Amino acid sequence: MGKEPWTTVGAWALEGKRAGVRGGLRDNGGFRTIRIRTVTDSATPQLPDRLSIDPRSPHHKPEFFEHDIGITFNGKERFDVEEYCVSEGWVKVPAGKTVDRKGRPLLITLKGRVEAFIKPAAQ
């Protein structure tokens, strides 16, 4: 068996199975990185207007994380987006290494032009 394809979705300070996603967790300098197995499916769904990688959020939809999602903010691709809203034009990103008292990263909201897309599967 070869290596399975994995996609990094976002960094969280969650432990073990509390992350609430299918996939694996990898240690990343004090944070945990959520990695989800990529699916090579020809039928890609339309991304929602608002999506969050936080499993506690009402905008968290795990079926979309089966695909590799990319976010373009003001013409540049961002890899640290925790939540986005295309219609309102904002993304939430971690504020450096700062965490709250429960160990979750503090988020700041950046406003601008937001585009969400599904990245093509690497062959």
List keywords for this structure.
45% strand, 123 residues, disordered N terminus, mainly beta
Quick structural overview:
The protein has about 120 residues and is an all-beta fold. It contains no helices and ten strands.
Topology (elements, then pairings):
Elements lengths: L5 E7 L11 E5 L2 E7 L12 E3 L16 E5 L2 E3 L4 E3 L4 E10 L5 E7 L2 E5 L5
Antiparallel strand pairs: 1-3, 2-3, 4-7, 5-6, 5-10, 7-8, 8-9
The first-to-last residue Cα distance is 17 Å
Broad structural category? mainly beta
Q: Approximately what portion of the residues adopt beta-strand conformation?
A: 35-45%
Q: Write down the secondary-structure element order.
A: EEEEEEEEEE
Number of domains: 1
Q: Provide mean pLDDT, rounded.
A: 75
Profile the largest sheet: 4 strands, antiparallel
Let me know the number of strands.
10
Helix content: under 10%
Major sheet strand order? 4-7-8-9
Q: Count the DSSP helices.
A: 0
Which oligomeric form is depicted? Answer: single chain
Low-confidence segments, ≥5 residues, pLDDT <50? 1-41
Q: How would you sum up the global shape?
A: globular
Q: What is the alpha-carbon Rg in Å?
A: 14 Å
